[in-house]
């Protein structure tokens, strides 16, 4: 076997092995998207109920709360980045990181200091490679977010928000995550988490007479208990959306990788056939030439 | 009151635990136990951890354990929202 032929065969083999891996990852992601989407749907009743409750308090009582009041001067802003733990998901992590860089630049131009909170190993790697510091980070489980993690993140953010700026606290908090639009589109999304702007999830028809709400024990305490929960549910929702996007993005990336491997295999097969044919042709012409030479030598 | 039953939903952070029609809901708030019948005034209460007992229209009872949540009543629609909730 000629040297050229052997090289092509090796390349075909390697492309085939790669294809097996990418195909498997594609199938795994495809099956997990369904599950991730189902989890997004399953968490919707909770966040809807909380949103309704918060807007009820906001509507039927006039309570000022520290989480909803805009600070007079904003010196420090926190940016929470939701990336993935693993790569091979196309532009998933990079697009959310790019978005957060733009946001940070905007915030810096407004004269604010930016501190970072990172979720996902890829975000952490991006920061440590550039020797940049982050306030706090969470890794592991970005493809299957747990509510406990959301709670942890919520607690950390709240305590940072409630501290004074000199004390390492922040005056506003933004979150950046990939929003799941469809199987083919995931859009990086920037949301200001704190100070809160309560938005009603759906356009509710306002009843003709506003009911008189009773709060137990009293509006302040209820709001105190509700708002952190509201924030947690927003964070959890971001994490679930991000997980669904991660799977969709990975499936797309792996699909195109498998397709490319197919193309490579086809190209190399053609080249190797070509090399084999060249070799055979050469051998024949050598034999014919040799026979010719022998017969002419006899005469 | 217009309707004769309560529409109850019980949700936890990651799923809807139970929903349906009921005649009475008893829950433990931070101030003590509260029972809600049809026609209760709108209410928003913080729950302390404990049982939520739902009496269905036919008299059978559904009991759930709810932790860290709140209860809202509005127009005979009751939502019990808890971080963790499970039927017992």
Explain the overall architecture.
The complex is a heterodimer of chains A (299) and B (88). With 299 residues, chain A is α/β, with parallel strands linked by helices. Chain A contains five helices and six strands. The longest helix of chain A has 80 residues, at 219-298. Chain A is 61% helix and 13% strand. The radius of gyration of chain A is 30 Å and the shape is elongated. In chain A, strand 2 (113-119), helix 3 and strand 3 (136-138) form a beta-alpha-beta unit. The relative contact order of chain A is 0.18. Chain A starts with a helix and ends with a helix. Chain A has a single domain (27-201, 211-253), classed as Pyruvate Kinase, Chain: A, domain 1, CATH 3.40.1380.10. Chain B is mainly beta and 88 residues long. Chain B has one domain: ATP Synthase, domain 1 (Sandwich), CATH 2.60.15.10. Chain B has a seven-stranded mixed β-sheet with strand order 2-1-7-6-5-3-4, with no helix packed on it. In chain B, strand 1 (6-12) and strand 2 form a beta hairpin. The N and C termini of chain B lie far apart (31 Å). The mean pLDDT of chain B is 87. Classes of the chains: A alpha/beta (299), B mainly beta (88). The interface between A and B is medium-sized, with 31 and 24 residues.
Percent helix of chain A: 55-70%
- Kindly estimate the percentage of residues of chain A that lie in beta strands according to DSSP: 5-15%
**What shape does the CA trace of chain B take?**
globular
Query: Mean pLDDT of chain B, as a whole number?
Result: 87
Key structural traits:
heterodimer; A: 299 residues; alpha/beta; Pyruvate Kinase, Chain: A, domain 1; elongated; B: mainly beta; ATP Synthase, domain 1; transport (chain B); ATP synthesis (chain B); ATP_synth_F1_dsu/esu (chain B); ATP_synth_F1_dsu/esu_N (chain B)
List the helices and strands and how they pair.
The complex is a heterodimer of chains A (about 300) and B (about 90).
Chain A: H1 3-60, E1 76-82, H2 92-109, E2 113-119, H3 121-129, E3 136-138, H4 147-162, E4 172-180, E5 186-194, E6 214-216, H5 219-298
Parallel strand pairs in A: 1-2, 1-4, 2-3
Antiparallel strand pairs in A: 4-5
Helix pairs in contact in A: 1-5, 4-5
Chain B: E1 6-12, E2 15-22, E3 24-29, E4 32-36, E5 43-55, E6 61-74, E7 77-87
Parallel strand pairs in B: 1-7
Antiparallel strand pairs in B: 1-2, 3-4, 3-5, 5-6, 6-7
């Amino acid at each position: 076997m000629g040297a050229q032929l052997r090289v092509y065969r090796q390349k075909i083999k390697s492309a085939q092995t790669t294809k097996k891996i990418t195909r498997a990852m594609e199938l795994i992601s495809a099956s997990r998207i369904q599950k991730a989407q189902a989890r997004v749907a399953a968490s919707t009743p909770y966040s809807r109920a909380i949103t309704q409750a918060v807007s009820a308090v906001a509507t039927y009582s006039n309570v000022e709360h520290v989480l909803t009041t805009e600070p007079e001067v904003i010196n420090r802003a926190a940016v929470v980045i939701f990336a993935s733990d693993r790569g091979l998901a196309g532009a998933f992590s990079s697009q959310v990181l790019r978005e957060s860089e733009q946001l940070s630049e905007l915030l810096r131009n407004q004269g604010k200091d930016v501190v970072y909170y990172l979720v996902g190993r890829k975000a952490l790697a991006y920061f440590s490679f550039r020797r940049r510091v982050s306030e706090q980070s969470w890794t592991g489980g970005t493809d299957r977010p747990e509510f406990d993690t959301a709670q942890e993140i919520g607690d950390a953010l709240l305590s940072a928000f409630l501290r004074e700026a000199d004390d390492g606290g922040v005056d506003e908090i933004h979150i950046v995550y990939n929003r799941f639009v469809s199987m083919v589109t995931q859009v990086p999304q920037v949301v200001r988490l704190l100070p809160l702007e309560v938005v009603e999830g759906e356009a509710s028809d306002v009843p003709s007479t506003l009911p008189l709400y009773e709060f137990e024990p009293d509006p302040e305490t209820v709001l105190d208990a509700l708002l952190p929960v509201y924030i947690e549910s927003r964070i959890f929702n971001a994490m679930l959306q991000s997980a669904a996007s991660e799977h969709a993005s990975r499936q797309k990336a792996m699909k195109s990788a498998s397709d490319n491997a197919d193309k490579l295999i086809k190209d190399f097969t053609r080249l190797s056939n070509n090399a084999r044919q060249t070799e055979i042709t050469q051998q024949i012409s050598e034999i014919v030439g040799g026979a010719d030479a022998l017969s002419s030598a006899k005469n | 009151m217009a309707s004769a039953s309560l529409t109850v939903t019980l949700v936890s952070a990651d799923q809807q635990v139970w929903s349906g029609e009921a005649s009475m809901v008893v829950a433990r708030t931070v101030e003590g136990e509260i029972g809600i019948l049809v026609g209760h005034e709108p209410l928003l209460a913080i729950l302390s951890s404990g049982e939520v007992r739902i009496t269905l229209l036919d008299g059978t009872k559904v009991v759930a354990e709810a932790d860290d949540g709140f209860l809202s009543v509005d127009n005979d629609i009751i939502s019990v929202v808890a971080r963790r909730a499970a039927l017992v």
